[in-house]
Amino acid sequence: MALHPSTHCTYSSHLNSYLTFCALHNLPQAPTPDTLSFFIVYMPHCIQPHLVMAYLSGVVHYLHPHFPNVCAVQESDLVCCTLHGCSHCLSQPVDDLLWLTQLLCGFFGLLCLGELVWPDSSTLQQYGTLSPCMSVSITASSFSFTVPCHKTDTDFEGDHVLLQQLHADDDPFSLFCMYLLSCNALFPLHPFLWVKADSDIPTCSWFMIHFCCLFPHWSLGGHSLCVGEATSLVLSGVQPTQIQAIG
Length: 247
What we know:
By secondary structure, this protein is mainly α. It has ten helices and three strands, in the order ααααααβββαααα. A three-stranded antiparallel sheet has the order 1-2-3, with helices on one face.
């Protein structure tokens, strides 16, 4: 049975999610019970659990011409049990993933809060200050994006933010990839990098509400992102001139 063009487009997006997952985790694209189970467990971190079955259907549809055994793999006991368990799990909300990604990008990238979110006042909100999705670049161990120019940027080139993968729990690389996969699944054509689940641009107050829930001390605020990492670099022996050049 022929698929509607819109279904083809949706299934193609699901396949891209699978291929991205395999590339990020150095897994073969050939479907096995293990690979599909890992994919099922991974996806709820990016999308709602009830959507995983639809994603799996899209993946199977596109893989079948190349791997005829994919239907049998999909019906294997391991995949079925994993899918059943997944349906009872709570996903990490997209907005929480967005906030945590912004937190680590701001900290390790020496970014000010205003470079990640919009001002609360609508009169101060300008689309030209938002990081565009098309500026994102990802390699095997790093990612980068552009923070648009501001009034002190006389060359109008913006700031190029480059962050490396860290082999630690607070690795910004893995979180950024998860967020980007989640965002692309919800809004594949959205022009801006930082987007909430309701398609709105995050604001300063939205970020700080989440921040204060995790860091309630009165002395901490949006400035803590840049100041905190700068202090960490000083304590690690990095020269102030180098820190200034970085951020």
